[in-house]
Specification:
Elements (H helix, E strand, L loop, with lengths): L2 H19 L70 E7 L3 E9 L2 E11 L1 E13 L4 E14 L8 E15 L2 E16 L3 E4 L2 E13 L4 E14 L4 H7 L6 E11 L2 E11 L1 H5 L9 E9 L1
Length: 302
């Protein structure tokens, strides 16, 4: 795979990684209180999460996903960029914005199924990316999840050759959660393609892969510390694994993200820093950005 193609794939991965892993921006553990006995699914919570399902359980005063009477900490469905496998509460709509131009709209159909779409507002280009994810707890503390996504991006400024880009892929997650602590292992793979009048459809014969390890510590119900390590790499289908590793510099490029999340009623937001661990960054930009490159996101839940 040519160097230019590799850069294109990694650029697309950077664009889609955040929305893909943020498909449903909140875990809500309670529903409107009704009389009578209810099942876990009717209460809008995952099996074994220990919540009562009452309206008073929504945020600070509920029991945790660990099933041991812990306080619930909102937005447990993600660390920073990486999706977790913690099931989301049923019948909840989540809107998450990134740098004002990219919005993820997700609806939790039931505690194990989320559907949604990522929308790019008209800023040089427009795009949509539907996504679907499923997850479930295998035990009180351990959950797994997986999902699919596919999208199209179309530039509208001087696009005389009718060009557009397409992307599609899958993501996987395994999450251990207990009390204030959450440990998450996830991976996403994606393929990209493009179209224009001259060449028609062209697809890269390979995949971009992003593996992640994340940790979250909930300081209280309003604040959480977040930490992630990402290891991206590219796989060329036309070459051996050893040649792939040599050509694409496996292990030479890492990303470390850290920051905080704040919750307040229906609104939540992230702020923190991205530290690219590479020779170019460490010997160059690091002196100007010692904390890393700032990032932020903001969201609402209904």
């Amino acid at each position: 795979m040519k160097k230019k193609s590799v850069l294109v794939i990694l650029a697309v991965m950077c664009v889609i990684s955040a929305p893909c892993f943020l498909a449903a921006e909140n875990v809500k553990t309670g529903v409107v209180e009704k009389t009578g006995s209810k099942t876990d699914a009717e209460k809008g919570r995952s099996p074994g999460d220990g919540s009562t399902g009452d309206g008073a359980d929504r945020d600070a005063s509920t029991r945790g996903n660990s099933g041991q009477g812990d306080t619930v900490y909102p937005t447990s469905d993600r660390i920073i960029l990486s999706r977790t496998a913690v099931p989301n509460a049923a019948k909840e709509l989540n809107l998450t914005g990134y740098a004002a131009g990219l919005w993820d709209i997700a609806y939790t159909v039931n505690p194990n199924l989320t559907i949604g779409v990522v929308v790019q507002l008209p800023i040089l280009s427009v795009g949509v990316m539907p996504h679907i994810s499923m997850n479930t707890f295998l035990s009180k503390h351990f959950a797994i999840g997986a999902g699919l996504f596919a999208g199209i991006w179309v530039p509208y400024v001087n696009n005389t050759d009718a060009s557009f880009g397409v992307v599609g892929g899958a993501h996987f997650a395994a999450t251990y959660v207990k009390g204030r602590h959450m440990l998450n292992l996830s991976a996403m793979c994606a393929g990209v393609g493009s179209h224009d009048k001259l060449n028609g459809f062209l697809f890269e014969e390979g995949l971009a892969v992003l593996t992640s390890l994340g940790y979250r510590y909930s300081i209280n119900t309003n604040w959480a510390f977040l930490f992630e390590v990402h290891a991206p790499f590219v796989v060329d289908f036309n070459d051996s694994m050893s040649n792939n590793a040599a050509k694409n510099h496996y292990g030479e490029y890492w990303g470390v993200l850290y920051g905080f999340r704040a919750h307040g009623g229906h609104v939540f937001g992230d702020f923190g820093f991205i530290l690219p661990i590479s020779k170019e960054f460490v010997t160059g930009l690091w002196r100007y950005l010692p904390l890393g490159i700032p990032y932020f996101s903001i969201g609402m839940r209904f």
